[in-house]
Amino acid sequence: MPSEFNSVQLDALKEVINIGGGNAATSLSQLINKPVQMTVPVIEVLAYDDLYQQVMSEETIVDAVMTRMIGQAEGIFLLVGLEEDMNHVASIMLPDDAAASPEMINSALKELANILVNSFLNSVTKLLDINLLTSIPLLTQDMFGAIVSSVYMESGQYDDTILILKNEFYYMGERMEAALYFVPKPGVLEKLFSLLGV
Fold first, then answer.
1. Cβ contacts of residue 152 below 8 Å, gap of 6+?
2. Rounded to two decimals, what is the model's pTM?
């Protein structure tokens, strides 16, 4: 389980995430024609209780876009943020003259998740020469704890620790209050570490 991963492995994983996040920021910048920067990725191994104390309360209502990664490695990406913040992020992606209807906002958030996830996977597939595909993004609104626990159950993760791989993005110097998490299926990270030679 994640608690057994060493610092060399986590540093290698961080570098892969860094490359993917940089590609995602570039893709996003090109789409909206405005600069988007990315923070240094965060990798944390937390107990369930610590997750809700350090990241976000489990009762917090959030919008989450879920994208499945399928192919030679499987897992689930979650783009998560408060509704107000996600609406703001979506508005950045919409043309200035577009009415920000709920449908337009939902579509923009799914497109954002699509860009971020596929930018990551493109960099990983090139680096490791493996085939990875993504599902159609699904948008849901629920308590943070309910979303995380359902994703972990679906992934077959029953350990009491959670590995968080998180990227945050900045737009015009302002933090986009949405983070991208990755929940790998059991054995996926070990496979990636093996391919990375760590």
1. 158, 162, 183
2. 0.82
Whether the CB-CB separation of 133 and 15 falls below 8 Å is answered with no
Q: What average pLDDT score do residues 17-29 get?
A: 82
Task: Give the whole-angstrom CA distance, residue 117 versus residue 67.
Answer: 8
Compute the distance between CA of residue 89 and CA of residue 65 in angstroms, rounded to an integer. Answer: 13
Sign of CA dihedral 10, 11, 12, 17: positive
Q: Which two tokens stand for residue 98?
A: 């577009």
- Contacts with 75 (C-beta within 8 Å, 6 or more apart), sequence order: 68, 69, 155, 182, 183, 184, 185, 188
List the one residue out of 70, 71, 65, 148 whose CA is nearest residue 111: 65
What is the residue-averaged pLDDT of the chain?
81
For 122-148, write each residue's pLDDT tens digit.
877 887 778 888 889 999 999 999 998
